[in-house]
Amino acid sequence: MYQIMINDTTLRDGEQAAGVAFNLEEKVAIAQFLDTIGVHELEVGIPAMGEEEIRAIVAIRNLDLQAKLLGWNRAVLSDIKASIACGLQRVHIAIPVSGVQIAAKFHGQWRVSLQRLKDCISFALDEGLWVSVGGEDSSRADENFLQDVALLSQEWGASRFRFCDTVGVLDPFSTHIKVQRLVSTLSIPIEIHTHNDFGLATANALAGIKAGAMSVNTTVNGLGERAGNAALEEVIMALKCIYGVDLEIKTQHLLKLSQLVARASGANVQPWKAIVGENTFAHESGIHAHGVLQNPITYEPFSPEDVGWERRLVIGKHSGRHSLSNLLEQHGIFLDSQETQAILDIVRQQSILKKRSLTTEELLNLVSEKRYSHAT
Ligand SMILES: CC(=O)SCCNC(=O)CCNC(=O)[C@H](O)C(C)(C)COP(=O)(O)OP(=O)(O)OC[C@H]1O[C@@H](n2cnc3c(N)ncnc32)[C@H](O)[C@@H]1OP(=O)(O)O
Ligand SMILES: O=C(O)CCC(=O)C(=O)O
């Protein structure tokens, strides 16, 4: 497969998640972390938002990162001027392409919208900028109109076209067909931008890549508008483990990055979140724990260390003898089969009462209490 570029938009679409507001230090820390692990490009924000955003983007630019930096703009000249004020070399210009969006934003006057796009591209190029164009709501656009806008963007000098599934209505099959159509007619690269309204953002991003998109938008933890975007950690690990495409990103830091963004956004990650959730390498069920004790790949798709986790065997309602004995033996306690079963029975009752697994301390107390009651 050709070289896939990650264009992470945690600092733009990620921050658009309702209620999320990064301060300057947080934006800088996130940009720095993404750069350190080897992410290729960062959509750093929306300069048109004003002074605070511009200060944060300038601070990121002053870091002199390896990653390319991109500013997001509407097809509005003052937006592009704000990007220039940030010292950015690369601008993304968004234009609505579906009937419903053109009606809402340009009163249905698509010729006016295209003229605005042309003027903005031309202005940006005259200023020496690299230009990417985004087809907002590409997934619901008339296919011929979308094709025309993409071809015109290319003709007017854009260097990349972003296919946006703005409201997350595609599935991987339809994504593949639509993206492939664009890829086959354009000579500039296509970028895929997906949303998670039906829980398909990562699958659709992968389908777009399979169809020939060379760049993919991601956000850490899948943070973003409404149900969020394709998660950086999921796209990277799926490309690596399912498709064998190693982007040479330092994946062992993905957990720390996720925790940084969770703190900065105030949006905690659910325990079962792929790759970075706290349950991703926790095994409670007896059959699973038994398997993992024999060979971790029985129930793990890759090693926890690959993304910065450690494996945990948890004792709770679903545990079995092997896992319990293994844990107790680590503390020098060797029980016979009957004793083990008796402890397991109590573990099941207590887990239901407490509505959680037991801590090691609770378990050790349980064993000594049981032995004490036997002795008396
Ligand atoms: C799908 C996406 O994620 S698009 C990105 C969305 N992100 C954001 O909106 C976050 C940052 N936004 C902001 O800070 C503000 O919305 C600003 C600074 C961009 C604009 O603020 P305001 O001037 O107060 O306008 P407001 O947000 O109320 O309305 C949006 C305006 O942009 C216009 N607009 C929307 N998209 C585009 C576009 N791609 N090209 C040109 N104009 C557009 C709308 O028609 C509307 O124009 P109007 O003011 O002439 O009616
Ligand atoms: O870049 C664009 O054109 C719009 C991006 C976006 O956030 C979306 O369409 O969901």
From TrEMBL:
Domain Pyruvate carboxyltransferase: 4-255
The keyword Transferase belongs to this UniProt entry's keyword annotation: yes
One Pfam family recorded for the sequence: HMGL-like
UniProt keyword annotations, A-Z: Nitrogen fixation, Transferase
Residues spanning the signal sequence: none
GO molecular function list: homocitrate synthase activity
Transmembrane segments: none
The enzyme's E.C. designation: 2.3.3.14
Catalysed reaction, written as an equation: acetyl-CoA + 2-oxoglutarate + H2O = (2R)-homocitrate + CoA + H(+)
Gene Ontology terms: biological process: carboxylic acid metabolic process; nitrogen fixation
Coiled coil regions in record: none
Cited InterPro entries: AIPM/Hcit_synth_CS, Aldolase_TIM, LeuA/HCS_post-cat, NifV/FrbC, PYR_CT
SUPFAM superfamilies (UniProt xref): Aldolase
Protein family (similarity comment): Belongs to the alpha-IPM synthase/homocitrate synthase family.
Function: This protein is a Fe-Mo-cofactor biosynthetic component.
Protein name: Homocitrate synthase
Native species: Dolichospermum planctonicum
